[in-house]
Amino acid sequence: MGTKPVLVVHGGAWAIPDEFGERSIPGIKNAVKSGFAVLEMGGSSMKAVEIAVRALEDDTMFDAGHGAVLNADGYVELDAIIMNGKTLAAGAVSCIRNISNPVTFACSVLEKTPYVMLTGMGANQFAEKLGIPQVPVEELVTDHAKAEWEQYRKYKQTVKSLFNTELVHDTVGAVAIDCEGNVACATSTGGITNKMVGRVGDTPVIGSGGYADNLVGAVSATGHGESIMKVTLARLILFHMEQGDPGSNSCPGAGTRAWISCIPDECKTPEEAADSALHYMEKRVHGRGGVIVISKTGEWTARFTTKRMAWGAIKEGVLMYGLNPGEIIQEIIKPSK
Amino acid sequence: MSSPPPPSFSSLGCGSVLNEKGEVEMDAIIMDGKSLASGAVSAVKCIANPIKLARLVMEKTEHMLLTDHGANLFAKAMGVPEIPGEKLITERSRERWSKNLEPDSNPQEDPGTVGAVAIDNEGNVACATSTGGLTNKLVGRVGDSACIGSGGYADNHVGAISTTGHGESMMKVVLARLILYHMEQGMSPVEAADTALNYMKTRVGGLGGVIVVSNSGDWAARFSTKQMSWATVKDDQLQYGIYTGEIHTSSVAEALESK
Protein backbone atom coordinates (compact mmCIF):
# COMPACT_ATOMS: atom_id res chain seq x y z
CA MET A 1 0.00 0.00 0.00
CA GLY A 2 1.25 3.47 -0.95
CA THR A 3 1.09 5.95 1.91
CA LYS A 4 2.80 5.94 5.28
CA PRO A 5 0.06 6.59 7.85
CA VAL A 6 0.26 9.70 10.03
CA LEU A 7 -1.89 10.88 12.92
CA VAL A 8 -1.80 14.27 14.64
CA VAL A 9 -3.92 15.33 17.62
CA HIS A 10 -4.39 18.52 19.59
CA GLY A 11 -5.85 19.20 23.00
CA GLY A 12 -6.58 22.89 22.68
CA ALA A 13 -4.80 26.17 21.99
CA TRP A 14 -4.85 28.62 24.88
CA ALA A 15 -2.64 29.98 27.70
CA ILE A 16 -2.35 26.56 29.30
CA PRO A 17 -1.02 26.91 32.88
CA ASP A 18 2.00 24.79 33.75
CA GLU A 19 0.21 22.17 35.84
CA PHE A 20 -2.45 21.69 33.16
CA GLY A 21 0.20 21.43 30.50
CA GLU A 22 2.03 18.68 32.35
CA ARG A 23 -1.20 16.79 32.90
CA SER A 24 -2.31 17.21 29.26
CA ILE A 25 0.70 15.47 27.78
CA PRO A 26 -0.13 11.93 28.99
CA GLY A 27 -3.65 12.39 27.57
CA ILE A 28 -2.25 13.60 24.25
CA LYS A 29 0.16 10.65 24.05
CA ASN A 30 -2.59 8.18 24.91
CA ALA A 31 -4.91 9.64 22.26
CA VAL A 32 -2.36 9.70 19.46
CA LYS A 33 -1.23 6.15 20.25
CA SER A 34 -4.84 4.87 20.34
CA GLY A 35 -5.63 6.49 17.02
CA PHE A 36 -2.40 5.40 15.37
CA ALA A 37 -2.97 1.79 16.42
CA VAL A 38 -5.97 1.82 14.06
CA LEU A 39 -3.79 3.05 11.17
CA GLU A 40 -1.05 0.53 11.89
CA MET A 41 -3.56 -2.31 11.51
CA GLY A 42 -4.52 -0.92 8.10
CA GLY A 43 -7.62 0.83 9.44
CA SER A 44 -9.14 3.98 7.98
CA SER A 45 -8.21 7.56 8.78
CA MET A 46 -11.88 8.09 9.70
CA LYS A 47 -11.74 5.40 12.38
CA ALA A 48 -8.36 6.65 13.58
CA VAL A 49 -9.50 10.24 14.14
CA GLU A 50 -12.68 9.06 15.82
CA ILE A 51 -10.75 6.83 18.25
CA ALA A 52 -8.18 9.55 18.98
CA VAL A 53 -10.84 12.17 19.68
CA ARG A 54 -12.87 9.70 21.81
CA ALA A 55 -9.79 9.23 23.97
CA LEU A 56 -9.57 12.99 24.45
CA GLU A 57 -13.32 13.29 25.09
CA ASP A 58 -13.03 10.64 27.81
CA ASP A 59 -10.16 12.53 29.45
CA THR A 60 -11.41 15.20 31.84
CA MET A 61 -8.28 17.29 31.23
CA PHE A 62 -9.77 18.51 27.95
CA ASP A 63 -12.85 20.61 27.18
CA ALA A 64 -14.80 18.03 25.21
CA GLY A 65 -17.21 15.31 26.36
CA HIS A 66 -16.12 14.64 29.94
CA GLY A 67 -14.57 17.76 31.40
CA ALA A 68 -16.42 20.12 29.10
CA VAL A 69 -17.16 23.61 30.35
CA LEU A 70 -20.59 24.90 31.41
CA ASN A 71 -22.85 27.30 29.54
CA ALA A 72 -24.64 30.25 31.15
CA ASP A 73 -27.38 27.99 32.50
CA GLY A 74 -24.89 25.56 34.02
CA TYR A 75 -25.40 22.90 31.37
CA VAL A 76 -22.89 21.13 29.19
CA GLU A 77 -23.57 21.70 25.49
CA LEU A 78 -21.31 19.86 23.09
CA ASP A 79 -20.30 20.29 19.45
CA ALA A 80 -18.34 17.96 17.17
CA ILE A 81 -17.50 17.26 13.55
CA ILE A 82 -15.93 14.44 11.58
CA MET A 83 -15.14 14.53 7.88
CA ASN A 84 -14.11 11.99 5.27
CA GLY A 85 -11.60 13.41 2.79
CA LYS A 86 -12.36 10.80 0.14
CA THR A 87 -16.05 11.53 -0.31
CA LEU A 88 -16.28 14.92 1.47
CA ALA A 89 -19.00 13.32 3.59
CA ALA A 90 -19.23 14.92 7.00
CA GLY A 91 -21.21 14.58 10.21
CA ALA A 92 -21.59 17.36 12.74
CA VAL A 93 -23.56 17.93 15.91
CA SER A 94 -24.09 21.19 17.78
CA CYS A 95 -25.45 21.92 21.24
CA ILE A 96 -26.12 18.34 22.18
CA ARG A 97 -26.48 17.39 25.80
CA ASN A 98 -25.73 14.39 27.96
CA ILE A 99 -23.71 12.44 25.44
CA SER A 100 -20.27 11.11 26.35
CA ASN A 101 -18.76 10.94 22.92
CA PRO A 102 -20.05 13.61 20.56
CA VAL A 103 -17.52 12.63 17.87
CA THR A 104 -19.04 9.15 17.62
CA PHE A 105 -22.50 10.66 17.43
CA ALA A 106 -21.24 12.96 14.64
CA CYS A 107 -20.05 9.82 12.88
CA SER A 108 -23.56 8.38 13.16
CA VAL A 109 -24.99 11.50 11.56
CA LEU A 110 -22.63 10.93 8.65
CA GLU A 111 -23.31 7.21 8.32
CA LYS A 112 -26.98 6.96 9.22
CA THR A 113 -28.57 10.13 7.82
CA PRO A 114 -28.48 12.00 4.53
CA TYR A 115 -27.53 15.13 6.49
CA VAL A 116 -24.33 16.86 7.54
CA MET A 117 -25.43 18.61 10.71
CA LEU A 118 -27.94 18.03 13.51
CA THR A 119 -28.53 20.40 16.41
CA GLY A 120 -30.06 20.73 19.82
CA MET A 121 -33.13 18.84 20.92
CA GLY A 122 -33.67 17.28 17.50
CA ALA A 123 -30.15 15.88 17.61
CA ASN A 124 -30.71 14.50 21.09
CA GLN A 125 -33.98 12.87 20.00
CA PHE A 126 -32.14 11.22 17.12
CA ALA A 127 -29.45 9.98 19.51
CA GLU A 128 -32.16 8.40 21.61
CA LYS A 129 -33.60 6.69 18.52
CA LEU A 130 -30.17 5.25 17.77
CA GLY A 131 -29.88 3.95 21.32
CA ILE A 132 -26.92 6.16 22.19
CA PRO A 133 -26.84 6.24 26.00
CA GLN A 134 -27.66 9.55 27.66
CA VAL A 135 -25.37 10.31 30.59
CA PRO A 136 -26.33 12.59 33.45
CA VAL A 137 -24.74 16.05 33.42
CA GLU A 138 -22.91 15.30 36.67
CA GLU A 139 -20.93 12.62 34.89
CA LEU A 140 -19.64 15.10 32.29
CA VAL A 141 -18.94 18.03 34.57
CA THR A 142 -15.74 18.23 36.61
CA ASP A 143 -15.24 20.22 39.81
CA HIS A 144 -12.83 22.40 37.91
CA ALA A 145 -15.36 23.23 35.18
CA LYS A 146 -17.90 24.09 37.87
CA ALA A 147 -15.45 26.32 39.73
CA GLU A 148 -14.43 28.12 36.56
CA TRP A 149 -18.09 28.66 35.67
CA GLU A 150 -18.78 30.17 39.06
CA GLN A 151 -15.84 32.51 38.68
CA TYR A 152 -16.94 33.68 35.26
CA ARG A 153 -20.51 34.25 36.38
CA LYS A 154 -19.18 36.35 39.20
CA TYR A 155 -17.05 38.54 36.99
CA LYS A 156 -19.27 38.37 33.90
CA GLN A 157 -16.43 37.72 31.50
CA THR A 158 -17.22 37.88 27.82
CA VAL A 159 -15.88 35.94 24.86
CA LYS A 160 -13.56 38.78 23.87
CA SER A 161 -11.92 39.03 27.24
CA LEU A 162 -11.76 35.27 27.45
CA PHE A 163 -9.75 34.99 24.30
CA ASN A 164 -7.62 38.01 25.13
CA THR A 165 -6.70 36.62 28.49
CA GLU A 166 -6.89 33.11 27.05
CA LEU A 167 -8.22 31.75 30.31
CA VAL A 168 -10.28 29.00 28.79
CA HIS A 169 -10.08 25.29 28.28
CA ASP A 170 -10.36 24.29 24.73
CA THR A 171 -11.28 21.98 21.97
CA VAL A 172 -9.73 18.66 20.94
CA GLY A 173 -9.10 17.33 17.47
CA ALA A 174 -7.29 14.94 15.19
CA VAL A 175 -6.23 14.64 11.55
CA ALA A 176 -4.95 11.51 9.87
CA ILE A 177 -3.87 9.94 6.60
CA ASP A 178 -4.16 6.18 6.22
CA CYS A 179 -2.25 3.68 4.11
CA GLU A 180 -4.67 4.22 1.19
CA GLY A 181 -3.97 7.96 1.20
CA ASN A 182 -7.39 8.88 2.61
CA VAL A 183 -7.41 11.86 4.93
CA ALA A 184 -9.88 12.67 7.69
CA CYS A 185 -10.40 15.18 10.47
CA ALA A 186 -12.39 15.31 13.69
CA THR A 187 -12.92 18.08 16.24
CA SER A 188 -14.91 18.10 19.49
CA THR A 189 -15.64 20.70 22.17
CA GLY A 190 -17.69 21.79 25.13
CA GLY A 191 -17.33 25.40 23.98
CA ILE A 192 -16.43 28.33 26.22
CA THR A 193 -17.17 28.83 29.89
CA ASN A 194 -20.45 30.60 30.61
CA LYS A 195 -21.31 30.88 26.90
CA MET A 196 -24.86 31.86 25.97
CA VAL A 197 -27.25 28.93 25.83
CA GLY A 198 -27.29 27.73 22.23
CA ARG A 199 -24.02 29.37 21.25
CA VAL A 200 -22.32 27.39 18.52
CA GLY A 201 -18.66 28.02 17.74
CA ASP A 202 -16.43 26.92 14.92
CA THR A 203 -16.11 23.27 15.84
CA PRO A 204 -19.16 21.78 14.07
CA VAL A 205 -19.18 24.30 11.20
CA ILE A 206 -17.68 22.63 8.16
CA GLY A 207 -14.75 24.60 6.81
CA SER A 208 -14.16 26.38 10.10
CA GLY A 209 -13.53 23.83 12.88
CA GLY A 210 -12.36 21.21 10.44
CA TYR A 211 -12.15 20.16 6.80
CA ALA A 212 -10.77 17.16 4.94
CA ASP A 213 -10.24 16.62 1.24
CA ASN A 214 -8.11 13.86 -0.28
CA LEU A 215 -7.10 16.28 -3.03
CA VAL A 216 -5.34 18.59 -0.54
CA GLY A 217 -5.29 17.48 3.10
CA ALA A 218 -7.08 17.81 6.41
CA VAL A 219 -7.24 20.39 9.20
CA SER A 220 -8.61 20.56 12.73
CA ALA A 221 -8.76 23.97 14.42
CA THR A 222 -8.92 25.26 17.99
CA GLY A 223 -8.90 28.71 19.57
CA HIS A 224 -11.22 31.69 19.44
CA GLY A 225 -14.22 30.13 17.74
CA GLU A 226 -15.82 33.28 16.38
CA SER A 227 -12.56 34.38 14.73
CA ILE A 228 -12.03 30.94 13.25
CA MET A 229 -15.52 31.14 11.72
CA LYS A 230 -15.01 34.63 10.29
CA VAL A 231 -12.07 33.43 8.22
CA THR A 232 -13.34 29.84 7.70
CA LEU A 233 -9.91 28.84 8.98
CA ALA A 234 -9.74 25.13 8.07
CA ARG A 235 -10.81 25.73 4.48
CA LEU A 236 -8.52 28.77 4.21
CA ILE A 237 -5.46 26.74 5.15
CA LEU A 238 -6.31 24.14 2.51
CA PHE A 239 -6.82 26.90 -0.09
CA HIS A 240 -3.27 28.07 0.63
CA MET A 241 -2.01 24.54 0.13
CA GLU A 242 -4.01 24.18 -3.11
CA GLN A 243 -2.64 27.28 -4.76
CA GLY A 244 -0.47 26.41 -7.69
CA ASP A 245 -1.23 22.70 -7.37
CA PRO A 246 -2.03 21.26 -10.85
CA GLY A 247 -3.62 18.19 -9.27
CA SER A 248 -6.26 20.14 -7.42
CA ASN A 249 -9.77 20.04 -8.89
CA SER A 250 -10.84 23.26 -7.30
CA CYS A 251 -8.07 25.28 -8.90
CA PRO A 252 -8.77 27.30 -12.03
CA GLY A 253 -7.92 25.44 -15.21
CA ALA A 254 -7.68 22.15 -13.34
CA GLY A 255 -6.44 19.40 -15.61
CA THR A 256 -5.20 21.85 -18.21
CA ARG A 257 -2.17 24.03 -18.51
CA ALA A 258 -4.30 27.17 -18.82
CA TRP A 259 -3.47 28.58 -15.42
CA ILE A 260 -4.92 31.97 -14.78
CA SER A 261 -2.71 32.76 -11.89
CA CYS A 262 -0.42 29.90 -10.96
CA ILE A 263 2.18 31.55 -8.83
CA PRO A 264 4.75 28.95 -7.74
CA ASP A 265 5.78 31.18 -4.84
CA GLU A 266 2.25 30.94 -3.49
CA CYS A 267 2.31 27.15 -3.18
CA LYS A 268 2.45 26.52 0.51
CA THR A 269 3.58 23.70 2.76
CA PRO A 270 1.25 22.80 5.66
CA GLU A 271 3.38 24.93 7.97
CA GLU A 272 3.43 27.95 5.68
CA ALA A 273 -0.29 27.60 4.99
CA ALA A 274 -1.11 27.34 8.70
CA ASP A 275 1.09 30.29 9.66
CA SER A 276 -0.25 32.42 6.84
CA ALA A 277 -3.88 31.73 7.77
CA LEU A 278 -3.33 32.15 11.53
CA HIS A 279 -1.49 35.40 10.92
CA TYR A 280 -4.33 36.62 8.70
CA MET A 281 -6.85 35.70 11.39
CA GLU A 282 -4.91 37.67 13.97
CA LYS A 283 -4.50 40.68 11.75
CA ARG A 284 -7.97 40.80 10.17
CA VAL A 285 -10.23 39.82 13.08
CA HIS A 286 -7.90 39.91 16.09
CA GLY A 287 -8.33 36.28 16.94
CA ARG A 288 -5.87 33.64 18.01
CA GLY A 289 -5.87 29.89 17.69
CA GLY A 290 -4.07 26.75 16.68
CA VAL A 291 -4.32 24.13 13.98
CA ILE A 292 -3.10 20.68 13.09
CA VAL A 293 -2.72 20.02 9.40
CA ILE A 294 -1.91 17.01 7.27
CA SER A 295 -1.28 17.13 3.52
CA LYS A 296 -2.29 14.53 0.95
CA THR A 297 1.34 13.39 0.88
CA GLY A 298 1.57 12.90 4.64
CA GLU A 299 3.44 16.08 5.57
CA TRP A 300 2.03 17.53 8.77
CA THR A 301 2.27 20.45 11.12
CA ALA A 302 0.99 21.74 14.47
CA ARG A 303 1.00 25.57 14.64
CA PHE A 304 -0.56 28.11 16.98
CA THR A 305 -0.65 31.82 17.82
CA THR A 306 -1.84 31.28 21.39
CA LYS A 307 0.69 30.91 24.20
CA ARG A 308 0.51 27.14 24.08
CA MET A 309 -1.14 24.23 22.35
CA ALA A 310 -0.93 20.62 23.50
CA TRP A 311 -0.39 18.40 20.47
CA GLY A 312 1.03 15.03 19.50
CA ALA A 313 1.87 13.19 16.28
CA ILE A 314 3.03 9.76 15.18
CA LYS A 315 4.77 9.10 11.90
CA GLU A 316 7.21 6.36 10.90
CA GLY A 317 7.69 4.94 14.35
CA VAL A 318 8.34 8.28 16.04
CA LEU A 319 6.03 9.97 18.55
CA MET A 320 6.39 13.73 18.65
CA TYR A 321 4.63 16.12 20.99
CA GLY A 322 4.82 19.62 22.33
CA LEU A 323 3.20 22.38 24.29
CA ASN A 324 5.25 25.55 23.85
CA PRO A 325 5.99 27.41 20.60
CA GLY A 326 8.73 25.67 18.64
CA GLU A 327 8.90 22.74 21.06
CA ILE A 328 9.07 19.24 19.56
CA ILE A 329 9.90 16.33 21.86
CA GLN A 330 10.53 12.98 20.19
CA GLU A 331 10.24 9.41 21.39
CA ILE A 332 10.88 6.31 19.38
CA ILE A 333 7.93 3.99 19.87
CA LYS A 334 7.69 0.27 19.46
CA PRO A 335 5.02 -1.06 17.06
CA SER A 336 1.82 -1.91 18.97
CA LYS A 337 1.87 -5.59 17.89
CA MET B 1 -34.14 41.70 2.05
CA SER B 2 -36.58 44.04 3.73
CA SER B 3 -39.27 42.98 6.10
CA PRO B 4 -42.88 44.04 5.73
CA PRO B 5 -44.46 46.29 8.34
CA PRO B 6 -46.00 44.30 11.18
CA PRO B 7 -48.30 42.46 11.63
CA SER B 8 -48.33 40.79 8.18
CA PHE B 9 -46.03 37.80 7.63
CA SER B 10 -44.93 37.71 4.05
CA SER B 11 -41.29 36.78 4.55
CA LEU B 12 -39.94 33.29 4.26
CA GLY B 13 -40.76 32.67 7.92
CA CYS B 14 -44.34 32.28 6.82
CA GLY B 15 -44.75 29.76 4.02
CA SER B 16 -41.50 27.97 4.70
CA VAL B 17 -41.21 24.21 4.22
CA LEU B 18 -41.98 22.05 7.24
CA ASN B 19 -39.84 19.57 9.16
CA GLU B 20 -40.94 15.95 9.65
CA LYS B 21 -43.17 16.96 12.56
CA GLY B 22 -44.96 19.56 10.42
CA GLU B 23 -43.29 22.52 12.11
CA VAL B 24 -41.47 25.53 10.67
CA GLU B 25 -37.81 25.35 11.72
CA MET B 26 -35.45 27.87 10.18
CA ASP B 27 -31.84 28.73 9.51
CA ALA B 28 -30.49 32.16 8.53
CA ILE B 29 -27.22 34.02 8.19
CA ILE B 30 -26.09 37.58 7.58
CA MET B 31 -22.52 38.77 7.06
CA ASP B 32 -20.75 42.11 6.89
CA GLY B 33 -17.93 42.14 4.36
CA LYS B 34 -16.13 45.05 5.99
CA SER B 35 -15.48 43.49 9.38
CA LEU B 36 -16.28 39.83 8.56
CA ALA B 37 -18.78 40.05 11.42
CA SER B 38 -21.66 37.67 11.03
CA GLY B 39 -24.76 36.46 12.79
CA ALA B 40 -26.65 33.24 12.23
CA VAL B 41 -29.42 31.17 13.74
CA SER B 42 -30.22 27.51 13.22
CA ALA B 43 -33.32 25.46 13.98
CA VAL B 44 -35.36 28.39 15.27
CA LYS B 45 -39.10 28.08 15.56
CA CYS B 46 -41.92 30.59 15.91
CA ILE B 47 -39.93 33.55 14.57
CA ALA B 48 -41.34 35.47 11.61
CA ASN B 49 -38.04 36.96 10.42
CA PRO B 50 -35.09 34.73 11.24
CA ILE B 51 -32.77 37.03 9.30
CA LYS B 52 -33.55 39.83 11.75
CA LEU B 53 -32.71 37.50 14.61
CA ALA B 54 -29.46 36.59 12.86
CA ARG B 55 -28.63 40.26 12.62
CA LEU B 56 -29.31 40.70 16.33
CA VAL B 57 -26.91 37.83 17.05
CA MET B 58 -24.30 39.74 15.08
CA GLU B 59 -24.97 43.13 16.65
CA LYS B 60 -25.93 42.31 20.22
CA THR B 61 -23.79 39.30 21.11
CA GLU B 62 -20.18 38.32 20.76
CA HIS B 63 -21.19 35.10 19.10
CA MET B 64 -21.77 34.10 15.50
CA LEU B 65 -24.37 31.35 15.68
CA LEU B 66 -27.17 30.57 18.12
CA THR B 67 -29.23 27.44 17.80
CA ASP B 68 -32.52 25.88 18.79
CA HIS B 69 -33.83 26.69 22.24
CA GLY B 70 -30.95 29.09 22.99
CA ALA B 71 -31.79 31.13 19.90
CA ASN B 72 -35.38 31.39 21.04
CA LEU B 73 -34.31 32.49 24.53
CA PHE B 74 -32.23 35.20 22.90
CA ALA B 75 -35.16 36.29 20.74
CA LYS B 76 -37.25 36.67 23.86
CA ALA B 77 -34.52 38.67 25.57
CA MET B 78 -34.42 40.97 22.52
CA GLY B 79 -38.18 41.48 22.54
CA VAL B 80 -38.63 39.66 19.23
CA PRO B 81 -42.22 38.44 19.25
CA GLU B 82 -42.86 34.73 19.26
CA ILE B 83 -45.40 33.80 16.59
CA PRO B 84 -47.52 30.70 17.16
CA GLY B 85 -46.07 28.00 14.90
CA GLU B 86 -49.38 27.43 13.06
CA LYS B 87 -49.41 31.05 11.85
CA LEU B 88 -46.24 30.39 9.85
CA ILE B 89 -47.72 27.38 8.06
CA THR B 90 -49.45 27.84 4.70
CA GLU B 91 -51.73 25.51 2.70
CA ARG B 92 -48.96 24.91 0.22
CA SER B 93 -46.32 24.01 2.78
CA ARG B 94 -48.74 21.64 4.52
CA GLU B 95 -49.66 19.97 1.21
CA ARG B 96 -46.01 19.52 0.31
CA TRP B 97 -45.34 18.08 3.76
CA SER B 98 -48.23 15.59 3.48
CA LYS B 99 -47.10 14.51 0.03
CA ASN B 100 -43.60 13.85 1.33
CA LEU B 101 -44.84 11.66 4.14
CA GLU B 102 -45.34 8.98 1.46
CA PRO B 103 -42.74 6.25 1.95
CA ASP B 104 -41.34 6.50 -1.58
CA SER B 105 -40.94 10.25 -1.61
CA ASN B 106 -37.49 11.77 -1.78
CA PRO B 107 -37.65 15.39 -0.75
CA GLN B 108 -34.33 16.68 -2.01
CA GLU B 109 -35.41 19.92 -3.61
CA ASP B 110 -34.98 23.17 -1.79
CA PRO B 111 -37.87 25.36 -2.91
CA GLY B 112 -37.69 27.83 -0.11
CA THR B 113 -34.27 29.39 0.44
CA VAL B 114 -33.99 33.11 -0.22
CA GLY B 115 -30.98 35.34 -0.22
CA ALA B 116 -29.44 38.64 -1.14
CA VAL B 117 -26.05 40.17 -1.80
CA ALA B 118 -25.28 43.85 -2.09
CA ILE B 119 -22.56 46.44 -2.48
CA ASP B 120 -23.20 49.94 -1.17
CA ASN B 121 -21.82 53.26 -2.29
CA GLU B 122 -18.94 52.93 0.17
CA GLY B 123 -17.92 49.66 -1.43
CA ASN B 124 -19.03 47.52 1.50
CA VAL B 125 -20.43 44.14 0.57
CA ALA B 126 -22.88 42.01 2.52
CA CYS B 127 -24.87 38.83 2.15
CA ALA B 128 -27.93 37.30 3.77
CA THR B 129 -29.61 33.89 3.39
CA SER B 130 -32.69 32.43 5.04
CA THR B 131 -34.47 29.08 4.73
CA GLY B 132 -36.83 26.53 6.18
CA GLY B 133 -34.42 23.89 4.94
CA LEU B 134 -35.44 20.62 3.33
CA THR B 135 -39.07 19.68 3.39
CA ASN B 136 -39.82 16.89 5.91
CA LYS B 137 -36.29 17.12 7.27
CA LEU B 138 -35.40 15.48 10.57
CA VAL B 139 -36.03 17.81 13.50
CA GLY B 140 -32.76 19.58 14.22
CA ARG B 141 -31.30 19.18 10.74
CA VAL B 142 -29.19 22.23 9.92
CA GLY B 143 -28.30 23.01 6.32
CA ASP B 144 -25.88 25.36 4.65
CA SER B 145 -27.89 28.53 5.31
CA ALA B 146 -26.71 28.80 8.93
CA CYS B 147 -23.10 27.86 8.14
CA ILE B 148 -20.66 30.61 7.37
CA GLY B 149 -18.84 29.87 4.11
CA SER B 150 -21.53 27.50 2.88
CA GLY B 151 -24.84 29.41 2.83
CA GLY B 152 -23.16 32.75 2.42
CA TYR B 153 -19.95 34.71 2.81
CA ALA B 154 -18.98 38.36 2.42
CA ASP B 155 -15.55 39.96 2.31
CA ASN B 156 -14.85 43.49 1.11
CA HIS B 157 -11.55 42.23 -0.31
CA VAL B 158 -13.37 40.00 -2.81
CA GLY B 159 -17.17 40.06 -2.82
CA ALA B 160 -20.28 38.45 -1.39
CA ILE B 161 -22.27 35.29 -2.09
CA SER B 162 -25.61 33.80 -1.11
CA THR B 163 -26.36 30.20 -2.04
CA THR B 164 -29.36 27.95 -2.52
CA GLY B 165 -29.74 24.32 -3.51
CA HIS B 166 -28.91 20.99 -1.95
CA GLY B 167 -27.68 22.09 1.44
CA GLU B 168 -25.50 19.11 2.31
CA SER B 169 -23.65 19.36 -1.03
CA MET B 170 -23.01 23.05 -0.52
CA MET B 171 -21.63 22.34 2.94
CA LYS B 172 -19.32 19.61 1.63
CA VAL B 173 -17.67 22.02 -0.78
CA VAL B 174 -18.12 25.13 1.43
CA LEU B 175 -19.63 26.66 -1.69
CA ALA B 176 -19.76 30.40 -0.91
CA ARG B 177 -16.18 30.51 0.26
CA LEU B 178 -15.05 28.39 -2.70
CA ILE B 179 -16.52 30.85 -5.19
CA LEU B 180 -14.76 33.77 -3.51
CA TYR B 181 -11.54 31.78 -3.55
CA HIS B 182 -11.83 31.45 -7.34
CA MET B 183 -12.47 35.17 -7.59
CA GLU B 184 -9.38 35.84 -5.48
CA GLN B 185 -7.48 33.82 -8.06
CA GLY B 186 -8.71 36.14 -10.80
CA MET B 187 -11.96 34.61 -12.08
CA SER B 188 -14.99 36.75 -12.82
CA PRO B 189 -18.15 36.16 -10.74
CA VAL B 190 -19.68 34.14 -13.60
CA GLU B 191 -16.61 31.94 -14.11
CA ALA B 192 -16.14 31.47 -10.38
CA ALA B 193 -19.78 30.52 -9.83
CA ASP B 194 -19.87 28.11 -12.79
CA THR B 195 -16.57 26.47 -11.83
CA ALA B 196 -17.70 25.94 -8.25
CA LEU B 197 -21.18 24.70 -9.16
CA ASN B 198 -19.69 22.31 -11.70
CA TYR B 199 -17.23 21.05 -9.10
CA MET B 200 -20.07 20.51 -6.65
CA LYS B 201 -21.98 18.49 -9.27
CA THR B 202 -19.02 16.29 -10.24
CA ARG B 203 -17.47 15.83 -6.81
CA VAL B 204 -20.55 15.33 -4.62
CA GLY B 205 -23.44 15.07 -7.08
CA GLY B 206 -25.20 18.18 -5.80
CA LEU B 207 -27.04 20.97 -7.62
CA GLY B 208 -27.51 24.54 -6.55
CA GLY B 209 -27.62 28.20 -7.41
CA VAL B 210 -25.74 31.28 -6.31
CA ILE B 211 -25.86 35.04 -6.47
CA VAL B 212 -22.53 36.81 -6.42
CA VAL B 213 -21.36 40.41 -6.26
CA SER B 214 -17.71 41.34 -6.57
CA ASN B 215 -16.08 44.21 -4.72
CA SER B 216 -16.11 46.17 -7.96
CA GLY B 217 -19.85 45.72 -8.45
CA ASP B 218 -19.82 42.92 -11.06
CA TRP B 219 -22.51 40.38 -10.32
CA ALA B 220 -23.75 36.97 -11.37
CA ALA B 221 -26.81 34.76 -10.85
CA ARG B 222 -25.90 31.19 -11.85
CA PHE B 223 -27.44 27.81 -11.14
CA SER B 224 -27.07 24.15 -12.02
CA THR B 225 -30.68 23.39 -11.05
CA LYS B 226 -33.51 23.72 -13.59
CA GLN B 227 -34.47 27.11 -12.25
CA MET B 228 -33.70 29.81 -9.78
CA SER B 229 -35.73 33.00 -9.35
CA TRP B 230 -33.40 35.95 -9.19
CA ALA B 231 -33.37 39.71 -9.68
CA THR B 232 -30.76 42.44 -9.73
CA VAL B 233 -30.84 46.20 -9.57
CA LYS B 234 -27.78 48.09 -10.81
CA ASP B 235 -27.49 51.55 -12.34
CA ASP B 236 -31.27 51.99 -12.30
CA GLN B 237 -31.72 48.84 -14.31
CA LEU B 238 -33.71 45.85 -13.14
CA GLN B 239 -32.83 42.41 -14.47
CA TYR B 240 -34.50 39.16 -13.52
CA GLY B 241 -35.04 35.60 -14.59
CA ILE B 242 -36.10 32.12 -13.60
CA TYR B 243 -34.88 29.58 -16.18
CA THR B 244 -31.40 28.96 -17.53
CA GLY B 245 -30.28 31.72 -19.86
CA GLU B 246 -33.37 33.81 -19.23
CA ILE B 247 -32.74 37.51 -18.55
CA HIS B 248 -35.46 40.16 -18.62
CA THR B 249 -34.47 43.78 -18.39
CA SER B 250 -36.38 46.91 -17.59
CA SER B 251 -35.69 50.19 -15.93
CA VAL B 252 -36.47 50.35 -12.24
CA ALA B 253 -38.93 53.16 -12.91
CA GLU B 254 -40.86 51.05 -15.44
CA ALA B 255 -40.94 48.10 -13.11
CA LEU B 256 -42.32 50.17 -10.25
CA GLU B 257 -44.94 51.73 -12.50
CA SER B 258 -46.17 48.40 -13.84
CA LYS B 259 -46.58 47.15 -10.25
Automatic annotation (TrEMBL), chain B:
Tree of life domain:
Eukaryota
Q: What class of enzyme is it?
A: hydrolase
Annotated site, Cleavage, chain positions: 112-113
Q: Which GO terms describe its biological process?
A: L-asparagine catabolic process via L-aspartate; proteolysis
- State the Gene Ontology terms under molecular function: asparaginase activity; beta-aspartyl-peptidase activity
- Active-site annotation: 113 (nucleophile)
Q: What reaction does this enzyme carry out catalytically?
A: Cleavage of a beta-linked Asp residue from the N-terminus of a polypeptide; L-asparagine + H2O = L-aspartate + NH4(+)
> Could you name the Gene Ontology cellular component terms for this entry?
cytoplasm
The record's comment on protein family reads: Belongs to the Ntn-hydrolase family.
Q: What is this protein called?
A: Isoaspartyl peptidase/L-asparaginase
Instruction: Name the gene.
Output: ASRGL1
